[in-house]
Design a protein that fits this description.
Elements: E1 9-15, H1 22-39, E2 42-50, H2 52-86, H3 96-103, H4 111-120, H5 125-128, H6 137-143, H7 146-154, E3 160-167, E4 173-177, H8 183-189, E5 199-201, E6 204-208, H9 218-223, E7 228-233, H10 246-278, H11 283-286, E8 292-297, H12 299-302, H13 315-336, H14 338-341
Parallel strand pairs: 1-2, 1-7, 2-3, 7-8
Antiparallel strand pairs: 3-4, 3-6, 5-6
């Protein structure tokens, strides 16, 4: 008698941006790769990312190319360890004093960020950073070297990669696909307009992809082959309190805009699904297919943190987000594939310390 083997999970993954909050997405991806290493039941079709989500996607792809699921886990861990060693923005991420104040009941207090926010409203990065120094550049060159990235992108067995950027002149999203993705593209996708000058690629000046698509899901709907889409959501659409300081108000407006971009993309897929289900849309003629949506969300957790925590590259903070994301990933796998996810080993990947 032939034993029944569970069907594979055909999956595309959408990875929004969020700076250091992307460590949560790292944790989810680590759980998925561990499950794939054990079961062999995951078939990835497409990775769509913006900002730190794009970097996570590229690291996953490079690691898969190097050594399969185990290689992906190691490459992602190495990337975040390097980030933790450098510190994303020294002096801007919360320090010991800020953490102590927060422990006294003022969770949104952040002395360094408040002072810096006042400064950037007076001076642009073209004045403060005329050389265009990007603190992430050396990390990308070390962790995602050009030859490795190019080899991974040319590997037809691996999932397709789409990276979003924002054209600073038109405001329109600009997508880079496959071999178009380079280290410069990844830097452009994470270029914060108030910290760094726009990255210039092929005559276009580009900013963080999260401003125009966080990330755009159009490629999944129009070109995707997978039946399922997992969105790892790290942009809080809701916060428990109304912001009152100028810095918090500005940060919240930016956050709302980014969250609504993702909600609009999700709504488009849900509308397409309904039209196909009711027969109002001929999926074959339109070149689309119904997509089952899945969402692993850190919004409740991240909604309790100040926006400045996106720049907090303290290894302990990164590790805490990784652990929470990893557990959320394991919980999601247990919910959708209980016959394969039960009894998942809980060993922890190397921390960012």
């Amino acid at each position: 008698m032939t034993a029944h083997r569970p069907a594979k999970l055909h999956l595309s993954i959408a990875l929004p941006g969020g700076g250091a909050h992307g460590a949560y997405s790292w944790g989810v991806l680590d759980a998925l790769m561990e499950w794939q290493d054990r079961s062999g039941l995951l078939e990835l079709d497409m990775l769509v990312g913006a900002s730190s989500g794009a970097v996570n996607a590229a690291a996953l792809l490079c690691g898969l190319h190097e050594g399969g699921p185990g290689g992906a886990r190691r490459r992602l861990a190495s990337l975040w360890q390097a980030t933790g060693r450098m510190g994303m923005m020294p002096g801007l991420s919360p320090g010991a004093f800020d953490r102590a104040i927060s422990a006294w009941g003022l969770p949104n207090f952040h002395l360094g960020w408040s002072g810096f926010d006042t400064l950037v409203r007076s001076l642009s990065p073209y004045q403060m950073n005329p050389l265009g120094i990007n603190p992430l550049r050396p990390i990308f060159e070390e962790q995602l070297p050009a030859d490795l990235l190019a080899s991974a992108l040319s590997n037809k067995v691996l999932p397709r990669l789409f990276v979003s950027t924002t054209d600073a002149e038109t405001g329109a999203p600009r997508l880079f696909e496959g071999s178009e993705v380079t280290g410069a593209v990844l830097l452009a996708s994470g270029t914060l307009p108030f910290l760094m000058p726009a990255e210039e690629i092929d005559g276009a000046r580009l900013w963080d992809g999260s401003y125009s698509g966080n990330p755009p899901l159009g490629p999944v709907l129009e070109q995707g082959r997978a039946s399922d889409l997992l969105i790892i959501d790290i942009t809080p659409a809701r916060r428990p309190d109304v912001p009152t300081s100028p810095t918090a108000i500005f940060d919240r407006l930016t956050e709302i805009a980014m969250a609504q971009l993702l909600e609009g993309e999700i709504a488009a897929i849900e509308t397409t699904n309904r039209l196909i289900e009711t027969g109002a849309l001929d999926a074959a003629r339109a070149g689309v297919r119904p997509i089952r949506l899945h969402r692993v969300s850190a919004c409740k957790r991240l909604g309790s943190l100040p926006a400045a925590s996106k720049l907090d590259a303290d290894p302990a903070f990164i590790d805490s987000l990784f652990a929470e994301g990893r557990q959320a990933g394991l919980d999601w796998l247990t919910a959708i594939r209980p016959e394969t996810a039960k009894g998942s080993p809980a060993e922890t990947q190397a921390s960012s310390s």
